[in-house]
TrEMBL record:
PANTHER family registered for this protein in UniProt: GLYCOGENIN SUBFAMILY MEMBER (PTHR11183)
Protein name in the entry: Polysaccharide pyruvyl transferase family protein
Domain of life from the UniProt record: Bacteria
InterPro entries: Glyco_trans_8, GNT1/Glycosyltrans_8, Nucleotide-diphossugar_trans, Polysacch_pyruvyl_Trfase, TPR-like_helical_dom_sf
Amino acid sequence: MTATPLAPAAATAPLSANALTGKRRLAFASFVDENYLPGFLALLRSLALSNPGVCEDFIVLHDDLRPQSVASIRALHPRVRFHRVDAARYDSYEKGDQDNYLVRKAYFILDVFRLRDYDTIITLDTDMVVLGDLTELLQLREGLAAVPQFFYGQHKLNSGLLVIQREYLSDEFCARIDATGRSGDYELDKHDQGILNSVLDGDFVQLDSRYNFVKRRLSGDKPVPDETAILHFTGRHKPWQGGESGYTQAEDRWREFELTDAEFYAAYMAVSGTMHRDLVVKYGTEHVARTGDVEAARKVAHAHINSGGFQEAADILSSVHIPVDDTWPHEVLGHALMSVSRYDEAQVQLHLAAGSPVRAATSFGRLAQIAWIHGDDAAAHAYAMQGLAVDPTHRPNRLMRLRTQGHELPAPREGAPEDQLAHVAFYMPQQGNAGDKLLPESVRLAVGTSTGPNGGADIETGSARWHSIHAHRLFDKAALQRVNERRGLVIGGGGLFIPDTAPNGNSAWQWNVPDEHLNGIDVPVIVYAVGFNAFDGQSYRAGRFNSSLRQLVERSAFFALRNHGSIQKVRALLPESLHDKVRFQPCPTTVTRQLVDGWTDPAPGQRENTVMINAAYDRAGLRFGHDYDHFLAEMAKAVRALGRHTEVQCVAHSLDDEKIAFDLRREHNVSLPVIPMYDFDNDAIRDTYARTKLVIGMRGHAGMIPFGCGTPIISLISHPKMAYFLADIDRPEWGVSVHDKNLGALLTERALGLLDDHAASVADVHGRQQELWKVTQANAADLRAILGG
């Protein structure tokens, strides 16, 4: 297959993370006016209290709400969006009595079909309360779903609850609604229901009645069934208007949510189980400010930490009085303080937390981390041993014990400092992520081949030509002095621009460097193949990160990012005068065949008849949203189908990656052998990927490393960086979103297509790689000029 040049269009890849990952956008929607406002406020409270882990956008359709009403709605939901309907649109409807409130309300909810920003919208009527789990509705992927009418036949849907998928949120479907409305060819009662029933003619997905359990079924003061998920107060008499005789038990359920804001916030903070970060922060912040509740402050701080808001976590816990013996808040505050580089204060909090056996192992682990950050391996080792004495299974302490038995960054052997390059990188410890383990060596091979007098042969992790600096250790005055004694400083590789891996307050990205020490570097600074790795839904501490980034770019003699998507993201954070300094350098793992001395491609027939699958579970909520069960079921289909042609294996870059094998076995009776690549050395990682026929990977380096070894790939896209790489090599068809409705069939089709003519697929990989190698060689010429190689 003939190689074609890399597409220039790669530089204009879309910036929307959602557009790149295919992650479904979900929202709730209701039509609200002043008459039904009390009902809507109760609905919002009931949704949060019965589904505390759910927080999607909530669209409020309205034609005129008072400012006070808008404020009362905003107080109950952090992601509310107001959408004013065009009332005049419905003047042409044949049976439209615009002075009739029920008619207006029924028509105006139809505006939900005119929204275009979402893949799934769930409508809830303002005379409903949510009593149970809505997971099933959030996971629906097909059609327009509703509960059939209880009294009038299964072929008609009941109004109030609709689960609407993207194909119905279209101009075409709206035109059908308008045509029906203008013709008058629908039932008079409940016009939205009548119009939709006429348009759909019974063609809708039928849901269980518990999702729209109408009040009329409880006549005679019957109790609400326990399985009811949504209770709908149909009829003229609403609970907030005095109610109706014969429905006392039903109306008692509604009044559970007739709360003041303060009562509601307190009730939410007291719920058990999974709580959504946005809800915890909104309700908990106000609750803590009013009450000084320490446990609520801990929950809010923990929510901030999980989304990278370390300063906010420190602030809220510092605002309350924490009793000396209340160890959990001390431990969380210590975590927050160390994450913003207030290390002395953090140690005080962590020592207090270590007084409890329940919190001691974690607290000693964090104390060990602080000592290690400051270069005190002996103290780090001692703290880790104290933690293991409390809990011998505590993984962070076990890893720190191993890390500090010897130094994981071997001291340079012979050679004068002025002949060395300093190298800032994330040096992965034992049982760490296999991709990150390989990266420092790959960067050294690429830079060393370009600049060293002996080519790349002596570019080893501990060789005399390199001085290693772990990115996560504090870059202090002594480290600065050592760097300034070298020929230059190389920073890379990997996704160092990420806010929550080794957080610190000095830079707000992975290199723990204060501004004064960054600006004190007086040797050439080379930023090589770094990635902007924020997930869809993640954010940086903008002020600190942007300032550090700008200073780094200004200080750099060479600043290159590993994909054009990262280039766009970083340029957007910089003044225009610095845009031209940001250039493209592919991750060196993608050109492994060109870098490894003596590399030999496997001959035809030498590859193992295997396909390797990798899945990632860090930040699973950001990766999968509500679609993990769908992803797992579709992967089971693909594994079964591919298993009829080849052996399918699970390749685990980190220990957590093995979860897909456990889940497939438990949920779908599909078994996969597991390759523990996190235990491999770099040669074994490359050899394993070079010998398989195809890798289907979710981690960035489960695509880039096999690609660099000449092996065909398919990316399971749950992060924008996967799409960035495929755009750069002009092969977007090598990626499938984990959210794709037909993931299993599509993955099988594309995998078999690559396997059927494997020689051509390998040749295509080689051709794409050659284009990346040309970029690497062109950059090498500039590096030679900068470093004098």
